[in-house]
Amino acid sequence: MAPDASGALGLGARMRRLRAFWREPHFLAKTRVIAIVLWVGALLVFQPRTALDMLAVFTLFAVIAVLPVMPRVVVPIGLMIALIVGFVPGDAVELATVITLYALFLTAGFACDGRLCALMVALYAMAEITCAVVWGSSSAALEVINGLVDAWSNMFADNMIVGGGADIPDLMAWAFAVAMSMLLSGFAAVFGHSFRISAVAGERLARSEAMVDRMAREQRLAHMIHDSVANDMSVIAMLTWRAKAGLDGDSGSSESSGASGAASVDLAASLDAIYDRSHHALDRVHEVIDVLDGKRTLAELEDDDDADDAEAGEGSGSGANAGSDAGAGADLIVQLERCVEDQDRIMAMIGMRGVSRVVAEGVDPCNPPKRVRRAVIGLVEEIYANIVRHAAWANGSEDAGDAEAYILFVTVGPKRIRIAEVNAIGGGESAAIRGTKHGNGLAQQRETVESLGGTLNASAQDGTWTIAAEIPVA
Fold it and tell me: Residue 432, class by beta-carbon neighbours within 10 Å (0-12 exposed, 13-18 middle, 19+ buried)?
C-alpha cells in the first residue's frame, strides 16, 4: 500500500507542478516545450534517411533547446541555420525546419523589438525565396504558391479555357512567394508579440497590486500603532501625572492613617494600570516589528487579536450568550461591555468619571464579521483616547468630583451599530499630555467606517464635543 500511495502522491505532485507551469507566464519555455513535442512527432512520422539528415535535424533541435536562454542572439543565428538546412533534402528535415521556424518567429515576436522583428521577417522571407528560386532549396511558402498555381492551371484545363496552365513569370512568382513567407512567419511573430503585450500588462498589474497591498498593509499597521500604542501612551501619561499629584498631595496634607491608606491603594492601582498599559504597548510594538520583518503576517496578527478578544469576552460574559459565528468570535455586546468597563475603570483612576452604556436593540442583535467588529472596537477606543486628551474635567478643573465628564452610548441592532458620545471641551489639552504631538486617529477611523458603508460625524458647538457613527453589519 505504501509504494502505491507514494507513487500516486508523486504523480499528483507532478501534475500540480505541470498545471502551475502552464499557468505561469513563461511563454518562451512553453514555446520550447511545444516545439520539442512537435519535433519528436515529426521524427516519428518521417525518419531521417542519411547521416546528413540526422545532423540537420539535431542541429535544429539544438536551436530549439537553447532558444529561451538567449532569445535575441539565438533567433538570428537560428534563422541562418534554417536557411542552410533548407539545402538538405528530405521530408524529416523539411518538417523539422518548419517547426523550428515557427518557434523562432514566436520567440522573435515575444523577445525582440517590433521593428527588429519586422525586419527579420522581411529579410528571411526574401532570403528563403531567393535561395529556393535560384539554388533550389526547400521553401514551404514557395511550395504553397506552386500548389496554388497548379490547382489554378488544372481548373483552367478542366474547363478547356484557352491559355490555361500558362507559366507565371519568375519575378511575379518570387514576389508572391515572398509575400506568402512574410504572411506565415509574420503571423507567428504577431502571435508572440501579443503574448509579450499580455505579459507586460500582467507584470504592471502585479506591481500595482503589490503596491496597493503594501500601502494597505502599512495603513493597517499604522492604525494598529495608533489605536494601541498612542492611546496606551496617553493613558500612561495621565496615570503617571495623576499618581504624582496624589503623592504630592499625600506628603503635604494627609496625616491620618486612613487617608494615607487610601492614597496607597490608589497609587498601587495606578501603578498596576501603568504596568499593564505599558506592557500591552510594548507587546504591540514587537508584534508590528515582527510583521515588518516578515516573521509573521498581518493576517496572523489580526487573527490573534480576534482570538484574544473572543477569550476575554467569553471570560467576562459570566454565561452571556457568546456569538455562534466562529469567524467573528465572541458576542460583540460582551466585548463592548468589557471594553467600556476597562476604559471607565482607567478613566476613574485618572480622575475623570462618565457614563457608558452598551445596549442591545431588538431581540436578535447582530453578530457582525471581523472587519466590522474591529472597526467598532477601534472607534470606541479612539473615543476614549480623545476624551483623555481633550475633554473638560469636572467643575472646569482637573479634579474628579462627582460630575460626569462624558456620556457614551453604543447601540447594537439587528442591521447596524450606532455609537454616540458627548463631552465638554476643555480649554486645551490635559495638563498631563500638553505639548505632545497627536495624530489623525479620528480621520483614520472615519476612513475605516466609510469603507464599510457607514458614516461618522463629529462636531464642536457651544463648548460641547459630539460624535455620532453608524456602521452597517454587512
Answer: buried
Query: What residue type is assigned to position 111 of the chain?
Result: A
Q: What angle do the packed helices 91-111 and 71-85 form, to 10 degrees?
A: 150
Per-residue pLDDT reduced to its tens digit, 57-100 = 999 999 999 999 889 999 999 999 999 999 998 889 999 999 99
**Among residues 390, 276, 274, 404, which one has the least CA distance to residue 344?**
404
Distance CA 386, CA 254 (A): 33
CATH of the domain at 383: 3.30.565.10
Q: Determine the pLDDT at residue 85.
A: 92
| Structural domain boundaries enclosing 339 | 297-472
| DSSP-assigned beta bridge partners for residue 425 | 391
DSSP 8-state symbol, 396: G
Say how many domains are in the chain.
Answer: 2
In the sheet where 354-360 sits, what is the strand order?
Answer: 354-360, 406-412, 416-424, 464-472, 455-461
pTM above 0.85, yes or no: no
Q: Name residues whose C-beta falls within 8 Å of residue 154's C-beta, 6 or more positions apart in sequence.
A: 165
Kindly state whether residue 96 falls inside one of the protein's structural domains: yes
**Cα 360 to chain center, whole Å?**
37
